[in-house]
Amino acid sequence: MTNNAFHDLLPAAKAIERELIDLRRKLHQNPELSFEETETSAMAAKLLNDLGLEVRRGIGGHGIVAELTGSRPGPRIALRADMDALPIQEETGLPYSSGIPGKMHACGHDAHTAILYGAAKLLSVRKDQLAGSVRFLFQSAEEINAGAKAMIEQGVLEDVDEIFGLHNLPTLPAGKAATRYGALMGSVDRFELTLTGKGGHGAMPDQCVDPIVAASAIVMSIQSAVSREISPFDPVVVTVGSIHGGASYNVIPERVELTGAVRTFSRNVQETMQLRLQRLISQSAEAYRCEAELRYVQQVPVLVNHNDHVRHVEDAIDHILGSDNRVEAKPVLAGEDFSVYLEHVPGCFFWLGSGPATGAEQAYGLHHPKFSVNEKCLSLGAAVLTAISIQRLGF
Ligand code: NI
Question: The pTM is what?
Fold first, then answer.
């Protein structure tokens, strides 16, 4: 590719910046939770229709598939954004804050939707530069790790050769991007545990079976799966996120419910964790005379980037943001269901800086009630995704 194909992209993206900011703010005011993205999807679909793309709706929930065909035949790449919000009460105080109590775009999926629309708009007037086609995937329900799977089941990866996606990162200033070869994000398994004992008077533990003591032992014992059974060079996190049991200081309850998550950085380790937890939980429960019922679900695999595709993304970032603004991403055990696409087709997922440009202001992290994005990232993200497409399909 010559540099000419890229050099008009930044000004072109800048020219649609206002539109992207308005769209993102509109979405921000009306956050919709996973698998409830009806209005978000309707808004995006209308805009994509107006660009003259072939648009299908209701794919894997409220997902949208929009197709752009280049002027010459060639491979097909997919670009993906997620659209769902979180059950969080917004505390940013912004004039365009969430208008819906208890719901918030606290992960910036409103920005992702606007960025991908921006890329579609930039590419729709560059069809004559493309040999091949671009499939835009606007996905439901990323936050509950269900949307990617649902879309793939509906065939969205058929005839797709490569896939690319991004996530905003508020701790990285807008204008920068971060890439990583190999594993970028962790696998996520979810578990729910019910411990049943025998309730009764708090003064007579001998006549009861106390599930709270058993739960306490289990919370501690499952950590030993990490500290004593897995190599210290293989990252694993086991987090018990909720414990519910009992209602009074002087009563031994009948049962205790726990939920938690297991995160790993390799497929091999992920595969072993369920059995380890099962053994530690059932034998600890038995030691404390309780019944244990464990429900364990592998939600998403490790997100592993493909080397060639990381290189393509880096090339595009260097053209748009400059190589000085490209950094190596740190690995993180948070999950992202983009990993499910990458199990089917090669591709790359990367971080787009969305934080304060100067670093003077405090950046709140993803999923924080004061999270917000630096809107400069919208046009930059659209330009980078466009550059990736031209990098892969340009001639
Ligand atoms: Ni997110």
Answer: 0.93
